[in-house]
Design brief:
The complex is a heterodimer of chains A (112) and B (109).
Chain A (H helix, E strand, L loop, with lengths): L3 E4 L2 E4 L5 E7 L5 E7 L5 E9 L2 E4 L6 E3 L9 E3 L8 E8 L7 E2 L3 E5 L1
Parallel strand pairs in A: 2-11
Antiparallel strand pairs in A: 1-3, 3-8, 4-5, 4-9, 5-6, 7-8, 9-10, 9-11
Chain B lengths: L3 E4 L2 E5 L4 E7 L6 E7 L6 E7 L4 E4 L2 E6 L4 E6 L8 E8 L3 E3 L3 E6 L1
Parallel strand pairs in B: 2-11
Antiparallel strand pairs in B: 1-3, 3-8, 4-5, 4-9, 6-7, 7-8, 9-10, 9-11
Classes of the chains: A mainly beta (112), B mainly beta (109).
């Protein structure tokens, strides 16, 4: 089954803990993206990667980190430095240039 | 940096009316402009897109127009139906994939 998969769907974290969100795609896409979505808000770009072993900060990168060691995988770590991490996180992937981006089903992170 | 502005943030129409959502972008290098629909609790899905060498594109009840000179693009939905109710996002692609703030469309029966 081809596509882009995020896990877990729901995640609870205690304050002060780091947590890693998984994003895997088998579409052979070059570019991958992480977005944060708050209630009633748009999609804000956290990090993106256009090739393996390279990534760039988006608009709200503070308190987050990523890696891109494999083309298929782009995990996002929410660190304890992120002051308000409770949100819905969406991962997307696409080929470069003018092509459609496909989204994972999202991870809802709640800090308790 | 690159920015996409989207208006209005909320839009309420009667079933059968038309709905128009407008976006502007700042990055002159943007050459691809997709529109996504997101239903509550679900992932965004592409509904239509337009490339920079085209001024208008239509797919049944949905159309998109692009004015590259003014850096404006718009989504037009005709004969709206209750199932069109959702949040709609515009986006511009240059180097990054940048989204507008979203428009919550409500179609009243």
């Amino acid at each position: 089954d081809g596509g882009i998969t995020q896990s877990p769907k729901y995640l609870f974290r205690k304050e002060g803990q780091n947590v890693t969100l998984s994003c895997e795609q088998n579409l052979n896409h070059d570019a991958m993206y992480w977005y944060r979505q708050d209630p009633g808000q748009g999609l804000r770009l956290i990090y993106y990667s256009q090739i393996v072993n390279d990534f760039q900060k988006g608009d709200i990168a503070e308190g987050y980190s990523v890696s891109r060691e494999k083309k298929e995988s782009f995990p996002l770590t929410v660190t304890s430095a992120q002051k308000n991490p409770t949100a819905f996180y969406l991962c997307a992937s696409k080929w470069e240039r003018d092509t459609e981006a496909f989204f994972g089903q999202g991870t809802r992170l709640t800090v308790v | 940096g690159e920015n996409v502005e989207q208006h209005p943030s909320t839009l309420s129409v009667q079933e059968g009316d038309s709905a128009v959502i407008k976006c502007t972008y700042s990055d002159s290098a943007s050459n691809y402009f997709p529109w996504y629909k997101q239903e509550l609790g679900k992932r965004p899905q592409l509904i239509i897109d337009i490339r920079s060498n085209v001024g208008e594109k239509k797919d049944q009840r949905i159309a998109v127009t692009l004015n590259k000179t003014a850096k404006h693009f718009s989504l037009h939905i005709t004969e709206t139906q209750p199932e069109d109710s959702a949040v709609y996002f515009c986006a511009a692609v240059g180097g990054k994939l940048i989204f507008g703030q979203g428009t919550e469309l409500s179609v009243k029966p």
